[in-house]
Amino acid sequence: MPGITGQGTTYNLPNYVGELFAVSREDTPLLSAIGGLTGGRSTTATLFEWQGYDLRDPDANRQRLEGAAAPDGEARVRFHANNVVEIHQESVEISYTKQGATGNRSTDGMPTVSVGGTVIPADELGWQITQQLKQISRDVEASFISGTYQNPTDNTKPRKTRGLLEAIATNVATTTHTAAQLTADDVLDLAQLAWDNGGIRETETRTIVVNSTLKRALTRAFVTDRNYQEETRNVGGVNLQTIETDFGRFNIMLDPYVPKDKLLVLSLEELAPRFLEIPGKGHFFAEPLAKTGAADKVQLYGEIGLEYGNEKAHAVLTVGVTASEKTAAEPAAQSDEPAPAAQSDEPAPAAAKRSAKKA
Could you tell me where the Low complexity compositional bias lies (predicted)? Predict the structure, then answer.
């Protein structure tokens, strides 16, 4: 059934009896693995940034002569990247009657009747707040993956955090292979891009994130065809399957919010939610609003953004799609207007991209 907008009453939020089943997905594996709505780090500005550095390439011929003068000084230049926190704000409003009439049972158009005993949910307001928090978590999960960066100069447009698909600019590959044709080499070539640029070095957090179609392709390429037995391990409270590759053991995260033609290789230790702390309230809180009648109205509010660390530690593969998949594809845009894809507010060197096309 669809949701409602406005005040919840005994007329538009009917009660039924029996066990209450959830028909929508509630899992947010990526967000849960990196801290959820209660983990991560605080920020004191809507635009937050982080910095990094690299070392020069090793040189097997850098020896000095005996008695030579000191060489010219050298130093490493740090780089920076940034992102913004986006606002998630929802509200729940339940009439006094609806909160009190827990014994009413809807009879689909006929007058309500009292059945006594316990009706699920007994606390309508609390139950609705819980569902809103679940919906916010799903919104954040989708944003962290495919969000399009937006940092407006005025309050006519919302701030939008940059998601992983936009943030990854260096280790980008494509293949003409569809999911049904995906090979182990397609995935290993992508993993090698991340490895060669310093990523996927942590054993416990080396992770491949895919939707259902590419999960089946991974199972075929790395398990079925190689007779390898899948194992599992726990990362950030999320139970993940693992596969063995040339670059070590990878966690496999099945995420419904990843587009079906994308395969992400992530270094999870680089990722963290960033929260704007509201004085006296914290982050992601529920607070009652002023009363204007015989109902309770509660606001849920939080500001959150994604810190993705060194984008070179991650990689993304775009696979080919079939004609039927192209027809069924839905737009994944997060914004009604085009948004810049820059990594920071300052110009950055053009990132090298590699296309790993397979015949």
Answer: 338-353
Query: Greater confidence, 127 or 152?
Result: 152
Which range has highest mean pLDDT (168-177, 215-224, 230-239)? 168-177
Is the pLDDT assigned to residue 101 strictly greater than 80? Answer: yes
197 contacts: CB under 8 Å, gap ≥ 6? 170, 171, 312, 313
Task: Judge if 300 and 319 occupy the same domain.
Answer: no
From start to end of the chain, where are the E strands?
Answer: 41-43, 47-52, 79-84, 86-95, 104-107, 110-114, 172-174, 206-210, 231-235, 238-245, 248-254, 262-267, 272-276, 285-288, 295-307, 315-318
As to burial, measured by CB atoms within 10 angstroms (0-12 exposed, 13-18 middle, 19+ buried), residue 338 is exposed
Asked if pLDDT for residue 81 goes beyond 90, the answer is: yes
The reply to whether 198 and 315 lie within a common domain is yes
Domain that holds residue 183: 166-272+307-328
Beta bridge partners of 247: none
pLDDT in tens, 319-337: 998 766 666 655 444 444 4
Same domain, 37 and 134: yes
CATH classification at residue 246: 3.30.1930
Tokens (6 digits) for 186: 């397609």
- Determine the pLDDT at residue 343: 46
